[in-house]
Amino acid sequence: xxNRSHNVLIIGGGVAGMTAAKVLDxxxxxxxxxxxTDHLGGKALDWACMATDTCQYCSACLCAELVNQMKxxxxxxxxxxxxxxxxxxxxxxxxxxxxxxxxxxIHVQAVLIATGLKIFDPSEVDFYEYxxxxxxxxxxxxxxxxxxxxxxxxxxxxxxxIAFIQCVGSRNRELGLDYCSQVCCKVAxxxxxxxxxxxxxxxxxxxxxxLQNFGKIFRTQVGNIDHRIKMVQGIPARILPSTDQEGxxxxxxxxxxxxxxxxxxxxxxxxxxxxADHDNLRLFKDMELPVDEWGFxxxxxxxxGKGIYAIGTVTxxxxxxxxxxxxxxxxxxxxxxxxxxxxxxxxxxxxxxxxGRDGYKTAAAMVQEGYSVVLLDEDNHDAPDHEGITTxxxxxxxxxxxxxxxxxxxxxxxxxxxxADVSAMIIASGSRKKPLxxxxxxxxxxxxMTFSDFVQKYxxxxxxxPANITFLLDHEAPEWKANAxxxxxxxxxxxxxGKYVTIIMKKMLVNxxxxxxxxxxxxxxxxxxxxxxxxxxxxxxxxxxTINIQIKExxxxxxxxxxxxxxxxxxxxxxxxxxxxxxxxxILGQMIDEEGFLQSPNTRHRLTGSPRRGVFFTGSCHDETDxxxxxxxxxxxxxxxxxxxSGHIQADNPATIHEAKCARCLTCLxxxxxxxxxxxxxxxxxxxxxxxxxxxxxxSACPSNAISQQDEKKGINSDHPMSKVVVFACxxxxxxxxxxxKGEKAGYKEDVQVIPVRCASSLDIRSILDPFLKxxxxxxxxxxxEGNCRSMVGTRLADTRIKLARRNTGITESExxxxxxxxxxxxxxxxxxxxxxxxxxG
Amino acid sequence: xxxxxxxxxxxFFDTLNQKERDDNIAECLTCGICVSRCTWYDGEGGPNPxxxxxxAQLGLDDLLAQNPMIWDCMVCNHCTEACPMGITMGEVIRxxxxxxxxxxxxxxxxxxxxxxxxxxxxxxxxxxxxFIETIDWLNEEIxxxxxxxxxxxxxxxxxxxxxxxxxxxxxGMNVMHLTAxxxxxxAFGEPWTMSSRHTDVTNxxxxxxxxxxxxxxxxxVVEAAEDLGIKTLVLSECGHxxxxxxxxxxxxxxxKPGFNVMSIVELTLEMAEKGAIKLNRETHPYPIIYHDPxxxxxxxxxxxxxRRLLSMVCREVVELHPxxxxxxxxxxxxxxxxxxxxLKKRMISGKAKxxxxxxxxxxxxxxxxxxxxxxxxxxxxxxxxxxxxxxVAALAEEAL
Lengths: 842, 400
Description:
The structure holds two protein chains of two kinds.
Chain A: E1 7-11, H1 15-26, E2 30-34, H2 61-70, E3 76-79, E4 83-90, E5 93-99, E6 103-108, E7 110-113, E8 117-119, E9 135-137, H3 138-146, H4 150-153, E10 161-168, H5 184-198, E11 203-208, H6 218-225, E12 230-233, E13 240-241, E14 248-253, E15 260-265, E16 267-272, E17 274-276, H7 281-286, E18 303-305, E19 308-310, H8 320-337, E20 349-353, H9 357-368, E21 372-376, E22 389-392, E23 395-403, E24 406-413, E25 416-422, E26 424-427, E27 432-434, E28 448-450, H10 451-457, E29 468-472, H11 481-496, E30 500-505, H12 515-524, E31 528-531, E32 539-541, E33 547-551, E34 560-566, E35 568-571, E36 574-576, H13 581-588, E37 615-617, H14 627-645, E38 655-657, H15 667-671, E39 677-680, E40 684-687, H16 697-701, E41 707-709, E42 725-730, H17 734-739, E43 752-757, H18 765-773, E44 778-783, H19 794-809, E45 816-820, H20 826-837
Parallel strand pairs in A: 1-2, 1-7, 2-3, 7-19, 9-16, 10-11, 10-16, 11-12, 20-21, 20-26, 21-22, 26-37, 28-35, 29-30, 29-35, 30-31, 42-43, 42-44, 44-45
Antiparallel strand pairs in A: 4-5, 5-6, 8-17, 13-14, 14-15, 18-19, 23-24, 24-25, 27-36, 32-33, 33-34, 38-41, 39-40
Helix pairs in contact in A: 1-2, 1-8, 5-6, 8-14, 9-14, 11-12
Chain B: E1 2-5, H1 11-15, H2 33-37, H3 49-57, H4 61-65, H5 69-72, H6 89-97, H7 108-120, H8 128-145, E2 162-165, H9 175-188, E3 192-193, H10 211-228, E4 232-235, H11 239-247, H12 249-253, E5 260-263, H13 264-273, E6 284-291, H14 304-311, E7 314-319, H15 343-349, H16 351-360, E8 364-367, H17 370-382, E9 388-391, H18 392-398
Parallel strand pairs in B: 2-3, 2-4, 4-5, 6-7, 6-8, 8-9
């Protein structure tokens, strides 16, 4: 297994490359990771933490953690400040010349390209006044956030006026950038949220074309902020430096009266898009790799052929979590390409919960991987029988016990009980489509149908479809990206057959690299797209067509009501979380998110994982996924499973219960956030090493002090005298941030002792108070932001314990403080320590 | 509240939609970029570029053709300069104005001017006799200053090298400009002439988007020039005339004319650069702002020629911000200036320009279009800019 003869070259030390390196390293593959700059991390490391009081799930901090993990890999060699200067196919793969201060020639069997992207430079076009001090990009605002100086750059007046302008360098055919950069709406909305958190009376205007409001938790985040900011559909492409003291001006349509008017701002933030890094084109040419007209590598299933793979933003705009998943997927593909033997997949049974499209596709993929599959279909879908899949229809999951590798699931099938032993579980139970509300359309029942019914009624018999069809993209609910894509494809087919097609929308979701181009082609072909105002609502009446839709079209003068005569109105179903999710989550020991979908939004475990090792999610039960997303999720789970079954993913410091001390009170069982504790014999809890994350929650929770970890108490509860200021820092966040504090600030360390802890929740009250007995004057506990704790409960638990410790002892908050922080917030960490030292920790 | 109905393949929609002609309104992304770029905002009237394109896109032909916005539009293309789909507003608006349904709203002055131009060859109805009387009178004046017969304004001189085609204002309100141009030609030292048969550089057919009228008017010029056998037609400083006679002429009349076309600014620069005339920078020992006329600059790509000439006749050329490709319209484009009822509107449409000039700080403004010249002069008065406005050619003449 540990085969050092396998060598893989990874070009690019960003999140995609690092994730792949980590997985490959686990398989014993010798990884050569080339990075052109002097540090790992890529663009994601430049992003700031977007947390307010709580995590906003931007996932940027994961990059800082990955960078740290690279140091711990056994089989990886990192080449910084390096470039590939020679590339030659040889019999067994490639001979690669790596140039840094010296030249190194290596032989590799596979190459993974993850060289990333460039950010659009607004000075490429001259109408954004980018030289003006008041104009900056989202990337630069990130820097401001990292340096903790937002307040310094805004006027001291009560209500600074800030504008965000979306699609700067995206969705622009004239600039040769006719694709959506995918991440900028999320970035800008989170930045706006963070601005409002720090400056609650800031007045924010958000200019967008079609707010790309989709994906897990993002709809909730937009919903939390959209009433506090002014949303304007329409992006300015001219910033006027004002003649007086009114600041920068842009002209846009006042959404109220459609009059064009000048709006004044103190700061304008340009949401800059991603573009291909053309500096790499020569290398790609030397390597004979296919490049699209934008300069992105054209990878098929992460492969560009001949043992060369490409992932992350070098293949097109991609967010951090997706890049990571692509890294896992590519690593698995590489392993397979190297013909490394899988660890007897037949031995393992995977339970797939959900018999719909997501479930069936997931199950089939697992069978193909060699696993045995038990498919539990809570409804009665008509998925065909498939060799290797044992299907239980109309079955309700009633219980799950055990841990990764040894789960026991029980279910009920119309009164019958059955159970099964499985190694891992994938939840793919889908979402529900709420039937159409016929409000307003009652008299036209025969001319109104849902998109599903439409597709079912007219699979191919398009000649029977009437001439004039109108599709609604949203109806009483926001657009769903998979639906938007399907409607667009359908509309284009119909249009080609001579139908008149109208699409009524609030916004167009242009997901995927080719989404914008598809939308452009649809308009060019003559499909009419209408932007319906939110109010008054769309109505239907009799008119020229069978049915006459009436809307307020937001781009037309306000006094006009637009009639759309048509023969058939196709409405989308409202996609909703399954009402069963809560019950399922309870059985699985998992959370649902604010919208009611399965899986916590916590980025430590997404896209597909969970805090319970061996429990995964795919498809629309947990996230907004189209076919492409689902494929990636499945591939990434395949990679995770292979790593798990190969024994690569283990707790680095599992806890153990000393049975002699154990009172069998089962506090640990209730406390464990990872479901790693099972009962044996007479209620004897034991911790299963394979399932343990080593967080130490159980250690601190155990009333009998019966649980310990191997390398527990590095510096905690030691007998040595302690510094004046003691900082307990979570090793996934605060400690990483502390390590990144720049050299010139090193002096702050005097009289400060920073002690890494596995998780803030591993500190019991005694450990928290102990430094005071050893000479410390101040104690600071620095944990992950709420929502970002890998062990889910750590932040809240630590906060509660500290409050308790203060209450019990009378120690003040300025002496014993609790703060949350992310791995990518070194400046904030510095300030926290500085404040603690100066006596203002509270 | 009015109702209108979405129409597929409306007659107007069907005439458009070619990317090569920049009128591909079907592709409008509704991104709103154009909305942010029209420099006529706030105050009364004014176009909303996106609304206009959308009306065309959605087949609302009547609504568009009968909307005063298409006549408020300055056809300056500033809005669509940044259009991500490459739609050019000027093309869309001119074609909308040419719709039969749009006829009623053509401003009376433009309607009358076109009629006079088609009947008499001059937009003001200036006849051949009027022309000859004016030139003879001017020549009397010139004689008092300069006894060289070559200094006189020649007309109908067969085989002259240059034919100068003036703006009608040079034969009426602003004859001083014509005598200045005559002094320039005198300095060039090459045979030149004017034509009594055709005396008008303008082409208002272009404003109303009527290709037939535009062609007829252009042919009036071409025929007069070809009859005289001149080598180069020299256009007075006029933006839309430059577009029609310099940029579009070949395509418009379907053949190559028998002469070259230059603007007086281009010719003067050529003469200065080859040393045929000497220009004194110290004649204007102060900085002068240059305003890009949209027709000359953004629409024809002539940015540097007038700047180079201006830099030879004053201490420093001051740039407005933004300029060149992204320059702001004076507020009188698209026929707005030619409508005598538009003064109030033009003072709103030109506010952005006035702001620009105020920020630039200099007290002199030069441009290379007599329409811009008049609008800028009126803006200076309205907004108390206290700037003196000249044309580049006129300043060059002063610097001889």
